[in-house]
Design brief:
This protein is an alpha/beta fold. It has one domain: Alpha-Beta Complex (Conserved hypothetical protein from pyrococcus furiosus pfu- 392566-001, ParB domain). About 25% of the residues lie in helices and about 25% in strands. It contains 3 helices and 5 strands. Helix 1 packs across helix 2. The radius of gyration is 15 Å and the shape is globular.
Length: about 110
């Protein structure tokens, strides 16, 4: 298979999306008690969001997106009063992302 035949898993550019248009696929109870959430919130206050959210466009609802990765980050963004988020658009709706079970460094950040 050559490069021209391969299907990309993500769009090559990020996109700013209103938080109200992003629908989480899971609920996190008491995120303020999660140590990782506190670290994310502190980091966002100091340097901003480093890793974009990963979303997939909803098929039946134009303009809305399912949140595949970044559930703690979207809660932190809302707590910080943000209304939009930088997002990577997934070309499929699978919940597996490159950061799960890997080095923790998203390929998008490697290219920065």
């Amino acid at each position: 298979m050559n490069v021209n035949e391969m299907k990309l898993g993500f769009q090559m550019r990020t996109k700013e999306i209103p938080l109200e248009a992003i629908l989480p696929i899971r609920t996190i109870k008491s995120p303020h008690n999660v140590r990782r959430y506190q670290a994310i919130l502190k980091s966002m206050r100091e340097v901003g969001m480093i890793e974009p959210l990963v979303v997939h466009p909803q098929k039946d609802k134009s303009g809305t997106f399912l949140l595949l990765d970044g559930h703690l980050r979207i809660i932190a963004l809302k707590q910080l009063g943000k209304t939009v988020a930088e997002c990577i658009i997934s070309n499929d709706d699978e919940c597996f992302t490159t950061t799960r079970g890997s080095t923790g460094c998203h390929p998008f950040n490697v290219t920065r």
